[in-house]
Amino acid sequence: MFSFIHLLPLFFFLSLAAAYNVRPTFNVLSYGAHANRFTENSNAFSRAWTDACASNTGGRVLIPRGSYVLGPVEFEGPCKGPVDFIIKGTLEASDNPADMFRDHWITFRYVDWLVVTGGGFLYGHGRKAWPHNDCAKNSHCKSLPYTMRFDFVNNSRIEHLNSFNSRSGHFNLFSCHKVEMSYIRISAPYWSPNTDGIHIGLSTQIRILDSIIKTGDDCVSMVTGSQDIEIQRVQCGPGHGFSIGSLGGSKNEDPVSRITIRDSSLKRTQNGLRIKTWAPSSPTLASDIIFDNIVMINVNNPIFIDQQYCPHNLCNSKAQSNVQIRNVTFSGVRGTSSSQFAVKLQCSRNVPCEDIKLKNINLAYHGPEGPVASSCINAEGRSYGFQLPSGCL
């Protein structure tokens, strides 16, 4: 017999849905923000965030259409409920010289159940900052700000955002857990310095999906403590490719493991699929890495393990890395290389690479140096299926 008690789960579900739908909206215009391209709006944005974060049911911070100048701002939790940060308009970095050498522009910190979305635009105005980036020749160079940082953010989504001309990297994830990024559009010139698209460190269960990254440095870089990272359907180029590392530059680095990049493409990038470690280096581990179904279009160094990474040529060429690289699969990598050596596995003499697998590799080269080739140093593993260039394992 049907009774009222059978309706209780439905009522509970509807009450949750109703609670979500009635979450209050905190419009930054109501806090004094002005979309006039010259008023600095950090205080208005901060007050809207504070009220949304303090709402018992959670809240929605709304940035309507228009252009808002914003200085460095931090949105901190923990919050009492979920918060949606909805960017409909355009956020433009302040040109105040005091804001130039900061490690952040927009930061979310200590927040759970955050959604950042809206289809809006982030303009870092990096062209004003790039002349100050002299890190290639100055080891004491000053930091430039990432466009958007996420520190200690969990169970969250970042989606439908557009980032242009960051001063340093575009997005940085530090110590985050269960974060999904999708439908992200990133753009900066190929020559812009240190403009990583998405940089990940000490973070777990991160997914990056259905995005386009055109920038001057790594499209996605994963450093110490990056674990359970999944990248799918991402278009990269220009840029430096998908990079794991650099690793081993500091003591006691956490391992990097369980990285999967698949169903993606690279076009005219400096590197393709790269694992890079310092030499000399402190010991750590990079393992359980899969690159699958990747299309290359005129990519330099399409498959590259570089355990002699030294970007400014200040290293001892005889030094060896102590980073162990283990269980790495390159499968279904195909297209064209802009360099003769389409496969380069340059591993460490101290800790040779172990269990490297090349499966169905088809990379053509049509340049003047000769036929496409591969090079393997201190690399142990096997080749399977079709191999162009012929396998060196």
* Shape designation: elongated
At the first level of CATH, the class of the largest domain is Mainly Beta
Major β-sheet profile: 26 strands, parallel
The H-and-E topology, N to C, reads as HEHEEEEEEEEEEEEEEEEEEEEEEEEE
Helix content: under 10%
Count of DSSP helices? 2
Q: What is the total tally of β strands?
A: 26
Low-confidence stretches: 1-20
Q: What is the mean pLDDT?
A: 93
Task: Please give the domain count.
Answer: 2
Structural class category: mainly beta
The rounded Rg comes to 23 Å
- Corresponding CATH architecture of the largest domain: 3 Solenoid
Task: Spell out the key features of this protein.
about 5% helix, polygalacturonase activity, Pectate Lyase C-like, single chain, signal, Glyco_hydro_28, glycosidase, mainly beta, about 400 residues, Pectin_lyase_fold/virulence, 26-stranded parallel beta sheet
Could you characterize the architecture of this molecule?
Belongs to the glycosyl hydrolase 28 family. The structure is a single chain. This protein is mostly beta strands. The protein has 2 domains: 22-197, Single-stranded right-handed beta-helix, Pectin lyase-like (Pectate Lyase C-like, 3 Solenoid); 218-393, Pectate Lyase C-like (3 Solenoid), CATH 2.160.20.10. 7% of the residues lie in helices and 50% in strands. It has a 26-stranded parallel sheet that branches. It is elongated.
